[in-house]
Amino acid sequence: MNTIITISRQHGSAGLQIGRELAKELNIPCYDKELLERAAKDSGLCKEIFEANEKKPTSSFLYSLVMDTYSYGYSSGVLSDMPLNQKVFLAQFDTIKQLAKEGPCVFIGRCADYALEDNPNCLSVFVHADLKKRIRRVAAINSISDAKAKDIIQKMDKSRASYYNYYTCKKWGDMESYHVCLDSGIFGIDGTVNLLKVMIEQREQGFKQAIFNCKPGDTE
C-alpha cells in the first residue's frame, strides 16, 4: 500500500475516530496530536508552543511574501521575522511532508491535504454529517446540553474553516477542495471506514492499471 490519507472533518462527525480506526485496519500510523510532538522535535520549538498556536491564522502581508518564497524552495532570512504562529505552521508543513516520505499513514486535519497536494499518493477526505446528529454525538460524549453542544460545534467549525481557508487559499468543506466527501451520519463510523478501505484499494488498483496500460504516445 502506498496511499496517504488526509482527513478533514466537521466537529462531531467522528472524523478523528474514523481516521484512527482506518489506520488501525490498515496497520499504518495515524497522526493527530502526535504530529505536534514530531514537529516540535524536528523544529526545535517546544510542543507547548505548537499547542498554543494551533488554529490561529493571521492576516500578514509579510507571511504572504514568505510563503511565496518558501513555495519555490528558497531559504530566507525573512523567516526569522515571521510571527510565531506562522513559524509553527511552516514547521508542521515540513513535518507532514517528511512523514509522508516515510510511508503510508493517516493525517487528521492541520491542512495536511494542502501540504501534500502535489503528492500522487495522497487521498484527501472530508467527513461531515447532519448538524442534528453531530449535536447529539457531542452532547452525549461530553454529557452536556444540546444547546451547549451546538455552540461548541459552531465555534470549532468556524475556527477550522478560518484556519484552513487562510493557509490553503481553498475553502474548507467545499467538495472541490478534496478528493472524497463522506457523510458519516449516513454510513456510520464502521461504514465510513469500510468505504474508505474500498476506495483506497480501488485507487491503488487503478493506479497500477494506468501505469501498465500506458503506451508511448498516449496523451489522453
Count of runs of 4 or more consecutive helical residues: 9
Structural class of the secondary elements?
A: alpha/beta
Main β-sheet, in a few words?
Answer: 5 strands, parallel
Percentage of β-strand residues: 5-15%
Helix % is 55-70%
Please provide the ordered H/E string of secondary-structure elements.
EHEHHHHEHEHHEH
Report the radius of gyration as a whole number of Å: 19 Å
Number of strands: 5
Shape: globular
Strand order of the largest sheet: 2-3-1-4-5
In angstroms, what separates the terminal alpha carbons?
26 Å
Walk me through what this model shows:
With 220 residues, the chain is an alpha/beta fold. It contains nine helices and five strands. The protein has a five-stranded parallel beta sheet. Helix 1 crosses helix 9. The longest helix has 30 residues. The radius of gyration is 19 Å and the shape is globular. 32% of the residues are buried. About 10% of the residues have low confidence.
Structure, briefly:
The protein is of the alpha/beta class and 220 residues long. The protein has helices at 15-26, 34-43, 47-52, 61-71, 84-101, 112-115, 131-142, 146-168, 184-213, and strands spanning 4-9, 30-31, 106-108, 122-128, 180-183. The longest helix is centred in the last third of the chain and has 30 residues, at 184-213.
